[in-house]
Design brief:
Elements lengths: L8 H20 L2 H4 L26 E7 L2 E7 L6 E9 L4 E6 L6 E4 L5 E8 L4 E6 L5 E8 L2 E2 L5 E3 L11 E4 L8 E2 L1
Parallel strand pairs: 1-10
Antiparallel strand pairs: 1-2, 2-7, 3-6, 3-8, 4-7, 5-6, 8-9, 8-11, 11-12
Length: 185
């Protein structure tokens, strides 16, 4: 028997079964599930998941996101004049897999002696400075950011692929048993 478009109905049944099998697989790899793999401490808030597609010369501030490898923190700004962007990232477990990204000789990322804190200082000229890190499924990740000598505003911090601003700076990313309970505060 054939459907109006010429496909054999048995082929349509096979395609339907394939979609039924693939549906849960697609849900398991959805952005909210990405950060939970292997973390008994809970899931991350959806707002921090996924890269924002950052390019040099975008809005002044810090961009922070989480993907399958851990966290990424980047800084950029519009224009070529120097602006110092600095701060700390403090995790409740330990920092590991630290990778400095596009740093010049006057930029730094320093890891504290017990590997709970990373202190960064970027002299940004409109390009991208940053670092990647894993946080060992930390229940809490607290971030402090300064632009120049003053505390960054929430509008100068961009989280996840949607570039969501936190409600305050400093802010804390908290894992929870469910995505609905995970939060940035």
């Amino acid at each position: 028997m054939r459907a109006p478009n010429g496909f054999a109905l048995s082929k349509l049944a096979t395609i339907g079964a394939t979609f039924a099998v693939l549906g849960p697989i697609a849900l398991a790899t959805a952005p909210g599930a990405l950060a939970t793999t292997g973390c008994k401490t809970g899931v991350l808030p959806v707002t921090v998941i996924g890269a924002p597609g950052l390019k040099p010369q975008q809005a002044l501030g810090v961009y922070l996101w989480h993907n399958g490898s851990g966290y990424s923190l980047r800084a950029t700004k519009v224009g070529k004049e120097r602006v110092q962007i600095s701060g700390t990232v403090t995790v409740s477990r330990t920092l590991h897999n630290i990778k400095r990204v596009r740093l010049e000789k006057n930029d730094s990322v320093t890891i504290g002696p017990k590997r709970h804190t990373a202190t960064f200082k970027f002299n940004n000229y409109g390009y991208i400075d940053g670092f990647d890190f894993a946080a060992a499924c930390s229940e809490k990740v607290t971030v402090v950011v300064k632009v120049g000598t003053v505390q960054a505003t929430p509008a100068q911090v961009f989280l996840g692929k949607n570039r969501t601003n936190p409600t305050s700076v400093p802010f804390t990313i908290e894992r929870a048993p469910t995505a609905a309970a995970a939060k940035v505060s």
